[in-house]
Amino acid sequence: MAAEPAAEQQETITTAWHHNPAMTTQPPHHDQRLTPLLEAFSTSDPLRVRLIEVLKTLPVEVIADFLQEPTLHIHPIEKRSVFGITRRTSETAAPSSLTFLSLPGKDGRGSRCVTLKRKLEKDHASFCRYVIAHELAHAYLRNGHWGNITDREEAADALAASWGFSRERSKATER
Fold it and tell me: Domain locations in the chain?
């Protein structure tokens, strides 16, 4: 498949922007277009910074797909969460995160949710970016195959590597 010319890529993003009613009618510059994908993160959140670093490198069609998908959610997770209910650390502690997932639609498609553990903040930056890219690859592939790669984990690894985030490179950078 031939690469889209730059003008057509921008039109894809602009179209994605206009089809999301939560967005303004004029698409702002690139960083602001990512805002809907960053809603769950505070502006000072280290995971937000890493997420932006990854999102900025993704192909235009991937960002367009994410922006067009109302059931895509990307958020940090503080504590262990099971089926949208967070376990409390004590009787008086409030849940630290609560995740609501959309039920599958008539077409059978469900929600796409990317949760990033807080412990990633403490990992080496290149490994953190690899994990984020790998998880975004799962979301983009709808947890399915990529080309001839039918194993979901291998498919996500291969797609993340095609975006420039390989497991091997992140491990080599850590040394």
Answer: 29-174
